[in-house]
Amino acid sequence: MSHIPALEVENLTKKIKRKLIIKGVSFTLYPGEVFGFLGPNGAGKTTTIRMIVGLISPTSGTIKIGGKNVRTEFTEAMRHLGCIVENPELYPYLTGWENLEHFAKMDASIPKSRLQEVVTLVGLTNRIHDRVSTYSLGMRQRLGIAQALLGKPKVLILDEPTNGLDPAGIREMREFIRKLAREEKLSVLVSSHLLGEIQLMCDRVAIISKGSVIRTDSVQNLLAEQERVIWKAEPLSLAKEILENETEVQEGLDGTLITLYNEPLLPEWNEKLVQAGVKVKEMRTQLPSLEDLFLEVTGGESID
Ligand SMILES: Nc1ncnc2c1ncn2[C@@H]1O[C@H](COP(=O)(O)OP(=O)(O)OP(=O)(O)O)[C@@H](O)[C@H]1O
Fold first, then answer.
1. Pfam families recorded for this chain (predicted)?
2. Of 171, 174, 99, 180, nearest in space to 135 by CA
3. Best mutation site among 37, 46, 194 for ligand 1, i.e. most ligand atoms within 8 A of its Cβ?
């Protein structure tokens, strides 16, 4: 992975009607990575994205796209950006191809050959000469992405890209986004309030809550940090008593005990149990769901 950032957001704030909605958000996207912007409804994802794409201006802070400052080098910055913020604007009575031709006409720097390239990229070759009114929602989304890719951007921004898609459509979109990042070296910023989706699609994630980014890390690191150990032991109450002297213990619903994963101390805990006459029948590690993790890092704010 190259380390020249494709998108840099630094200390971004936004005040709306004297209220601070975005409170100093920073994050960086590198080429070829899918970056998740995760937070519950109202956390500030859309407002942040609207500033990045230049629809509203920040109160303070800096945004650079492909190294170009959105405030001072707007046109150059936008040249590196493709985005679909709300639904893609498409003409239903034109074919997919005619839609692309229409948008390509608005930008003289797009060569005719690029149309076929983006159609292939989004996998719409077989249906591109059909009217958009006959397309499924997933196909419309992909045509929208094809349009966003016409100018060969470095960064693609997708606000809740799987909204409204059925499970098969969601899976297809997820794989498609990963493929774009890999094959085109495109950085993709995906906003979502769906944890499972971010987990499966993104390399890294920023967790946003009440206008602030509270954590940024790889999905893997975030999960590993909260790894738990599940204990099956008899008698359970004695095992609980002994473990509680060492660490925080929760009782599982199925007669198990749950502690956080603490590798260097695990054999010691196990030995203490055995010495006290507890039979340790099973000891296994488990990754938390991203949902548990979210509750943990936000200190209890849930996500739908
Ligand atoms: N124009 C506005 N006037 C007043 N408040 C606003 C305005 N725009 C956004 N907000 C408030 O800012 C907060 C963040 O909204 P935003 O839409 O960015 O959140 P979000 O994370 O994208 O959630 P959603 O997924 O629901 O869009 C919300 O509390 C919202 O009510």
1. ABC_tran
2. 99
3. 46
